[in-house]
């Protein structure tokens, strides 16, 4: 049934930097500098990503030159201080992520892998020599990094990793094992590899190592035939007697055990909380424009009640997601230590759910045209299947929140 066209005019949200989806005055939550940073990233996406992303996605091409472009844009290690890093706020970093993911999740993932994972590991846990050697080159895009935690048989349970590092009498470390679903590994100049030391090393369990990828025994192969993240690179790494000097280990006490990689994962998860809202907003904008122009039964699709109901639900959900991201970002900027795992899990869990449902709903509203790469929602939906899975599945985040609520860890099976 069509809507009453004599109803009151809609609210003008054109002045919001987030566009028509901004129903709740989100624009007013951000400073002029924060909004300008987001608009700078949007301009980069509009010039360098949007015109090409359908072709890159269809042909499974990763535009390697985009890494240097991200370096010039200042989004690699954007939230890190010193060592040539941009040193921007958490909220600015979040806004940059949502603009990048409005272009494509796979390309936003590059910024997460480089900055939130590989660079964060060195910045948080590395020696001064490691920081001085790598961080400035990685911030500029001159050097590429990857982060090797996940294994073929150890995804949600990293404690089950089988990659080992043994220390020999002379002090050298020798790494052996395999990693899987490692972004950028075939392009990387340096890899941060996490391995079990156990009785082979200092007895302190999982440790991280800074591994130049030209080290003999290190090899990486891209994973092909993907239905998601087709414009980015995910790989399998093999480590066959990779010999490293004693000072290749990340030396900080903060890197001992799984708390080391988990701190980096939470940085990446924070970016995802914001990023997926960009994908959702882009899908919403695509279907909002389409329904205004597409006529069926003698009227624009936007004039029908069912269409408006769906658009309303999408917009409310996106506003809620931005408010959640904004809250966590402000807490992080005020005191990074106050951001708890449960807080990060709440944001990643709900915003990923919201984003993927919006992308799917938008695809449906586009009808048959929605299955083509002329429109972004199905590409976003396919990419978000990966985003929802990596850096913690829904179930991992539910259990993280559940542990906070009950005081009981339920990650292991209950016999």
UniProtKB/TrEMBL annotation:
Pathway: Amino-acid metabolism; tryptophan metabolism; Amino-acid metabolism; lysine degradation. Residues 263-405 form the Acyl-CoA dehydrogenase/oxidase C-terminal domain. It catalyses: glutaryl-CoA + oxidized [electron-transfer flavoprotein] + 2 H(+) = (2E)-butenoyl-CoA + reduced [electron-transfer flavoprotein] + CO2. Its cofactor is FAD. Keywords: FAD, Flavoprotein, Oxidoreductase, Transit peptide. Pfam families: Acyl-CoA_dh_1, Acyl-CoA_dh_M, Acyl-CoA_dh_N. The keyword Oxidoreductase applies. The keyword tRNA processing does not apply. Residues 32-142 form the Acyl-CoA dehydrogenase/oxidase N-terminal domain. Its EC number is 1.3.8.6. Residues 146-242 form the Acyl-CoA oxidase/dehydrogenase middle domain. It is an enzyme of class 1 (oxidoreductase). InterPro entries: Acyl-CoA_DH_CS, Acyl-CoA_Oxase/DH_mid-dom, Acyl-CoA_Oxase/DH_mid-dom_sf, AcylCo_DH-like_C, AcylCo_DH/oxidase_C, AcylCoA_DH/ox_N, AcylCoA_DH/ox_N_sf, AcylCoA_DH/oxidase_NM_dom_sf. It comes from the Bacteria. PANTHER family: GLUTARYL-COA DEHYDROGENASE, MITOCHONDRIAL (PTHR42807). This is glutaryl-CoA dehydrogenase (ETF). It comes from Brevibacterium daeguense.
